[in-house]
Amino acid sequence: MARKVDPGRVARMRERILAEAAEVFAMRGFEGASVADVARAAEVSPATVFYYFGDKATLFRSLFEQDIPKAEALVARYADADDAVRAIVDVVESLAKDATDPRAPALLIELLRRTGRDPELLDVVRRSASVIHEGLTTLIERGLESGQIDASLDARETASWLQSVVDAAYLNARPGHCPAPALRRTVLRYLAPENRGGP
Fold first, then answer.
1. Where are the domains of the chain?
2. What tens digit of pLDDT does each residue of 89-110 get?
3. Which of 23, 195, 173, 32 is closest to 113 using CA atoms?
4. I need a surface site. Which of 13, 127, 164, 165 has the fewest CB within 10 A?
């Protein structure tokens, strides 16, 4: 009789390997890291890493595939928010939360390097960004309709701009520095109707 697979155990092992992979890729870069390095950090055999992820490119890609369900959950959480501007600020702050992680800038640089060489990774990034873009666009449209947001703004362009601001928070991340207050000020002032100004 075939052995039953325990989904919980599989999920925990994948999470453990991915946590160590993030550390190794941030420290050594994609090219400098090996599956053996990740296996050693996770205290498993290289065969175990290959079993769960297939190859190094898939392992690296899996770090960012985790962002898709997180993005979907984040957008769903604010889908029915009454205060569109408050929801937008919360979404932006949530997206930038991991910028305080000291590994974040290095992983972002490796991601930018790899997307030109790995079409599947590029697709993962686009899917995640699209979920956030659609969610922000919907909230901005709601804010425009209610008069909370400057009527001269285009919803889709504004959503793209907000995503760029979040990206900048990662590119300019410093350990121990939280970008949330600056992001909040920037977003509120940008969205505010011209005759009002942000807080």
1. 7-56, 66-191
2. 999 999 998 888 888 889 989 9
3. 32
4. 164
Helix (H, G, I), strand (E, B) or coil at 64: helix
CA distance 14 to 18: 6
**What do you get for the CA distance between the two ends of the chain, in Å?**
66
Tens digits of residue pLDDT in 185-196 = 999 999 999 755
CA–CA–CA angle 8, 11, 14 (5° rounding):
150
| The token pair that represents 166 in the structure block | 């979040």
Q: Which runs of consecutive H residues, i.e. helices, occur in the chain?
A: 7-32, 35-42, 46-53, 56-65, 67-77, 84-96, 104-115, 119-146, 155-171, 180-191
Distance CA 184, CA 135 (A): 18
- pTM (predicted TM-score): 0.87
pLDDT at 62 over 90: yes
Rounded Cα–Cα distance for residues 91 and 10 (Å): 30
Q: What angle do the packed helices 35-42 and 46-53 form, to 10 degrees? A: 110
Query: What are φ and ψ of residue 78, in 5° steps?
Result: -110, 10
Write down the residue that tokens 């209610």 correspond to: 146
Q: Are 191 and 85 in contact (CB under 8 A)?
A: yes
pLDDT at 42: 97
Name the phi and psi angles at 182, rounded to 5. -65, -40
- Where does 7-56 sit in CATH, by number? 1.10.10.60
